[in-house]
Amino acid sequence: MTKTKYLLYAFKQQKNNKYLYWYETDEKYFVQTKPPKYLLDANSKTLDTIDEDEIIQNPWLEWKSNDVQKIISKDGICINYLKSTNHDFITKNEDMKLLEMYSYLVENFDISKSFGFKTIQEWHKMVFETIYPFAGKNRTVNMSKGNGLQAWEWRVEFLNGLPEFDVFLKEISVKEYDSVDEITNDLAKCTCDFLFIHPFREGNGRISRLICDIILAKNGLPMIGLKLKKGDKYLERVHSGYECNYEPMKELLQMKIEEGLRNE
């Protein structure tokens, strides 16, 4: 699959003795520069005309960048194989792929072994490879999200924390825990540190909860990742963890695990 902006290329049109090259987003089309020859060879589709109501201006910012992670819509949507700027549509597809990943790991993952960040990269690729061209790759750009007290910026240099996180993850992923208190102590740190580093361009929240759930399952405890909601002051707890105060996140994890145990 094409891992550059040319993933949006749709067809060419001959007009006034020259070719126009059309790209697709949200079932509309915009003109941009000629794609590489190998793409034109793979997609020889040519149209004579295109309806005016199907034509839009290029909706992607930083289009000229050679770093595909920089190409986003005005609303912050990353360029994607779904060829969409619709947040709800993309979220639905992300959720579906994550559930498929849960099913796959339940059936195929060897929970007796430890795992580190390399495994997490593989999981990220498996979840997002049909959605984003950078699936499984570390982010290359600074990111920011939220407003007011919930605002945060993740700088590229935060990725320098990955080696330490990798060591910690390998330790806790093979550890056998004796109590909910003990495991939530480590999972709170794992979740918050992972989200502080924010290693991927998209999908960090989903992957952090997947990590948490796999470690819980290895210890015979209920998976709770899909039950962590904003209504539980989840983001505030995450931000407390950014300042190395893991107690709020630990409290939430403990509460959700105990709820799961009561409902078994």
From TrEMBL:
Domain Fido: 115-255
Full protein name: protein adenylyltransferase
Any one Gene Ontology BP term: regulation of cell division
PANTHER family documented for this protein: PROTEIN ADENYLYLTRANSFERASE FIC-RELATED
Enzyme Commission number(s): 2.7.7.108
UniProt key word Hydrolase: no
Entry-linked InterPro entries: Fido, Fido-like_dom_sf
Catalyzed reactions: L-tyrosyl-[protein] + ATP = O-(5'-adenylyl)-L-tyrosyl-[protein] + diphosphate; L-threonyl-[protein] + ATP = 3-O-(5'-adenylyl)-L-threonyl-[protein] + diphosphate
Record key words, sorted: ATP-binding, Nucleotide-binding, Nucleotidyltransferase, Transferase
Entry's Gene Ontology molecular function annotations: AMPylase activity; ATP binding
EC top class named in words: transferase
SUPFAM superfamilies: Fic-like (SSF140931)
